[in-house]
Amino acid sequence: MNQPRVTEKKAGRAKANASRAGTASDPQAPVFRSGFACLVGRPNVGKSTLTNALVGAKVAITSNRPQTTRRVIRGIVHRPDAQLVILDTPGLHRPRTLLGERLDSLVRSTLTEVDLIGFCVPAPDLIGPGDKYLAKELAAVKNTPVVAIVTKTDEVPQERVAEQLLAVSELGEWADVVPVSAVRGYQLDVLADVLVSHLPEGPPLYPDGELTDEPEQIMVAELIREAALEGVRDELPHSIAVLVEEMGPRDGQPDLIDVHAELYVERSSQKAIVIGTQGARLKDVGTRARKQIEALLGSRVYLDLHVRIAKDWQRNPKYLRRLGFYD
Question: Mind spelling out the 3-state secondary structure of 221-260?
Answer without folding.
Answer: HHHHHHHHHCCCCCCCHHHCEEEEEEEEEECCEEEEEEEE
